[in-house]
Write a structure and sequence with these properties.
The complex is a heterotrimer of chains A (267), B (288) and C (281). In chain A, a hairpin with a 2-residue loop joins strand 1 and strand 2. In chain A, strands 1-2 form a two-stranded antiparallel ribbon. Chain A is mainly α. In chain A, 30% of the residues are buried. Chain A is built from eleven helices and two strands, in the order αααααββαααααα. Chain B is an alpha/beta fold. Chain B contains eleven helices and ten strands. In chain B, the strands form two sheets. Chain B has a six-stranded mixed sheet, sandwiched between helices. In chain B, 47% of the residues are buried. Classes of the chains: A mainly alpha (267), B alpha/beta (288), C alpha/beta (281). The A-C interface holds A 10, 12, 131-133, 161-162, 164-165, 168-169, 172, 213-214, 217-218, 220-228, 232-238 and C 58, 60, 82, 85-86, 89-90, 92, 94, 96-103, 105-106, 109-119, 122-123, 126, 140-142, 144, 158-159, 162.
């Protein structure tokens, strides 16, 4: 069950999407998100969707994997959609008790659900095609200027990459602990909300203890491999922009510009 | 003897309908007899963990049936918790599942889930602690203050306290030092002797299995490849080696002796046995 | 002195105790020298001090009493800290808790990156290290898809990439299955033979210790035995007394001697043991 969570997973590969500089990928993801929030019509959403589909095709990531990634946030998507459905003022189509469904509501709900789904799929595309280390390298480099303001950029990016590295390990561990407690008759599926919350204690306590133990051991192992902060560190993969990076970023800029123009004309 | 657990043509497939689809257990049929001490051996990936998680209903078969007594354990999925109380499963490195404030409370977790009375729980906790060799004085301590070996004993006691009809232990001695290993196995043997209930021990250490069990089932590539007494199984030592398993060092010495022309039963697997066989052989030659 | 890689003198250490309790001494005056290029096994039961000793070999722990030198550098000297840790690499017990990166090559590169090795040189070292542990085809894999033995080989590659003089394996085989253990042991043995890297193997498995050039047995924070495997592993009574086992071959030969066989007790391997028995029959 828990193994279905694909958040933060990286699928190694050699496609164009994989070979792009992580900085360009972060930048275009941001551009893509801005574009999504500016899009207001079928045409601009169509453009954004085309962008997403092209991205998926180029990366060679299975569309199934992306859709599966939506599962954990399905609730949030539905919730926002329903909220928008009922609370958008406008031309009333149907009404019962305090609920009103408006024409605008239907559109907003639809676009909202589409926007969140596309946003999540787009960011997943980034994490699926970019190794966490490349991702944090990219972030570290993009946020580099903040170092002058005493923001511990290297430390933050190191923390993030380690967190990502341990997600699959901890998921596996949670699965194991759950099975072990079930074998002693623990029941996670029935009872009141309070009962269910209480039932989590036998999972959370061992999980935290194990996470702390892992952190402790990892810290020692990192020290043993001469880790002493970001100072004087070199990299196996030095970030370098190539022609393809400029090309893709240029294309994204053009599409964002089109979406903005469309929005300006109310399309 | 009649079977207490019967597995009929069990198959379990992970990740069905995905490209990663893989059968961890494929068409396995076996019987576990009432009161026996059974060893299950197989290398990593042979399907042993998947198999044992079916015996107490933690996993549901993709196809095939698991019977406890003569009832299909999945006949009524709502009663699967009952099965888990009757078939106690101790996972590998079980010390990582401890969570309570005191050793006592942790051991009592299973019995409490069974809905037993305070008095009955108390008796069971103390009994279980005694079986695994935990001192009464430790019961009020936090499990996290104990040594690794003691933590493992607490975790095992937590399952024993449910007083299951079948106790399954997955690699109970993994990571312990020789002394800790020896004394824990002695505790398990004593538990089996005194309770008379069925014990199943999963291991990849041949030496450990050879010295303790009545019967061995060998798994390889998601299926059963051999089953029999240690003597029967180790007499097919070459086949064991062929499926990538170790054989006890003593058996390897016997195999080597045989290769060099000594007339010795290759199925010996304990030091005492081989010593006896060799002494008899020497005595025999002296008489001739 | 030139060919001693690690030297300890009257090394003592105790872990901080909880309030009101006297700290328990983990090491009680250990003096030993480890010669460059040798394969040394440190045997002992849990709590004998073997792991604490290992952690002093690259300044993870600093002595409370006595001194440890690595290649002539005092481990207490902070200026030498990185150099000490580069020269003596450490592989730990839990394979999952020492892998830093999500891709094999980036994990192996972690050490050299920390040392500030130039990029092209890191690439060369990563490839060479992965080849040395036989994992070159896994270069772009995610570590959590690997087996325990493979993860430990990646950890070893991560150490090799720092070009150390010595590798300390702190119970690195304890959590592995038999085939994983064999993978790791074959790897370190090859590194020892072919590249002359000193190996210190901390273990409680007798059969692993049997393949070393020298065995040091720890008990109660002291080195109580020190010698060649043939000499150490045949001292059955003493080893048993401190909670260790002897190989079954040795136990068998002892028994046979009692039964009037004229056999040596130091035939450790299966072949040797069988040969000795055939000769005595």
């Amino acid at each position: 069950m828990l193994k279905d969570i694909t958040l933060g997973q990286f699928f190694p590969g050699t496609s164009l999407a994989h070979r792009l500089d992580p900085r360009s990928k972060i930048i275009i993801t941001v551009v893509y998100i801005v574009g999504l929030f500016c899009a207001e019509s079928f045409v601009s959403y169509g453009l954004m969707a085309a962008l997403l589909v092209t991205g998926v095709k180029v990366s060679g990531v299975a569309p199934k994997a992306l859709v599966k990634g939506l599962k954990p946030v399905l609730f949030i998507i539905c919730f926002t959609a329903v909220l928008n459905l009922f609370y958008t003022p406008g031309e009333i189509l149907a009404q019962f008790w305090v609920f009103k469904i408006t024409k605008e509501g239907i559109f907003t709900a639809f676009f909202m659900a589409l926007r969140i789904s596309m946003l999540i799929m787009g960011t997943f595309l980034l994490t699926y095609t970019t190794s966490p280390i490349a991702l944090t390298d990219g972030l570290e480099s993009l946020l580099g200027p903040l170092k002058k303001m005493k923001v511990p950029v290297h430390e933050l990016s190191m923390m993030m990459s380690i967190a990502l590295r341990f997600i699959p390990t901890l998921i596996e561990e949670t699965d194991k602990i759950m099975s072990a407690q079930k074998a002693r008759g623990a029941d996670f599926e029935s009872g009141s909300l309070l009962d269910r919350a209480k039932a989590l204690v036998p999972i959370l306590v061992p999980l935290f203890i194990s996470a702390f133990r892992r952190a402790d051991e990892l810290a020692v192992a990192m020290e043993c491999r001469c880790y002493h902060g970001g100072e004087g560190r070199t990299k196996l993969h030095v970030l370098r922009y190539h022609a393809r990076d400029y090309l893709v970023m240029g294309a994204y800029a053009a599409i964002l510009a089109s979406v903005l123009t469309l929005a300006h004309f109310g399309l | 003897m009649k079977p207490i657990i019967r597995v009929d043509n069990l198959t379990h497939t992970y990740g069905q309908d995905t490209p990663f689809c893989r059968s961890a257990v494929d068409g396995v049929s076996l019987e576990i007899m009432e009161g026996e001490f059974l060893g299950i051996i197989g290398h990593t990936g042979s399907g042993k963990s998947t198999l044992i998680q079916h015996l107490n209903g933690l996993l549901r078969p993709t196809s095939g049936t698991v019977y406890l007594g003569d009832r299909d354990i999945w006949a009524d999925p709502k009663k699967i918790r009952e099965v888990r109380f009757q078939v106690g499963l101790v996972f590998q490195y079980p010390e990582y599942q401890l969570f309570e404030e005191t050793v006592y409370k942790d051991i009592a977790f299973g019995p409490k889930n069974m809905g037993l009375s305070e008095q009955e729980i108390d008796r069971r906790v103390r009994d279980a602690a005694a079986f695994v060799g935990l001192d009464e004085g430790l019961l009020d301590k936090s499990p996290f203050e104990l040594s690794g070996g003691q933590k493992r004993r607490v975790a095992i006691a937590g399952v024993i306290a449910m007083e299951p009809k079948v106790l399954i232990l997955d690699e109970p001695s993994a990571g312990l030092d020789p002394a800790g290993r020896r004394s824990l196995l002695e505790n398990i043997r004593a538990y089996h002797r005194e309770r008379g209930t069925t014990v199943v021990m999963v291991s990849h250490s041949m030496d450990e299995v050879a010295e303790n069990v009545d019967r061995i089932i060998v798994l390889a590539d998601a299926g059963v490849v051999m089953s029999g007494t240690p003597h029967q199984v180790f007499s097919r030592a070459e086949e064991l080696v062929a499926v990538g398993l170790n054989v006890p060092q003593v058996t390897r010495v016997a195999m080597e002796l045989r290769r060099r022309g000594v007339a010795i039963d290759p199925a010996v697997y304990t030091v005492a046995e081989l010593r006896r066989a060799l002494s008899a052989l020497k005595g025999g030659t002296a008489v001739c | 002195m030139a060919d001693t890689i690690i030297k300890t003198e009257e090394l003592a250490f105790s872990y901080p105790a909880e309030e009101g309790q006297t700290p328990l001494a983990a090491l009680n005056g250990v003096s030993l020298e480890i010669a460059r290029g040798t394969f040394v096994a440190v045997l002992g039961h849990n709590g004998s001090g073997k792991s604490t000793l290992a952690k002093h070999m690259n300044a993870v722990l600093l002595p409370a009493g006595g001194t440890v030198w690595v290649d002539g550098m005092d481990t207490c000297d902070e200026r030498c800290l990185l150099e000490v840790r580069r020269r003596v690499g450490m592989v730990f017990q839990n394979p999952d808790n020492q892998i830093v990166a999500n891709v094999v090559e980036e994990d192996v590169a972690f050490g050299p990156e920390n040392l500030g090795v130039p990029t092209e040189e890191i690439r060369r070292r990563v490839d060479a290290a992965l080849k040395a542990v036989g994992m070159e085809e896994f270069v772009l894999q995610a570590p959590h898809h690997l087996s325990g033995g493979q993860k430990q080989r990646i950890a070893i590659a991560g150490v090799i990439a720092m070009e150390p003089a010595c590798i300390v394996l702190d119970e690195s085989t304890a959590m592995l299955d038999p085939s994983g253990r064999r993978e790791v042991l074959d790897t370190v043995r090859r590194l020892n033979r072919e590249k002359g890297i000193t190996v210190v193997l901390i273990t409680h498995h007798m059969d692993e210790a049997a393949m070393a050039d020298r065995i040091i047995v720890m008990d109660g924070g002291r080195a109580v035995m020190d010698g060649a495997p043939r000499e150490i592993l045949t001292r059955m009574a003493e080893l048993r007394a401190i909670g260790l086992d002897v190989p079954h071959t040795v136990e068998l030969l002892y028994g046979l001697r009692e039964d009037g066989f004229d056999v040596p007790v130091d035939a450790l391997s299966v072949e040797e043991c069988a040969g000795a028995i055939v000769a005595a029959l």
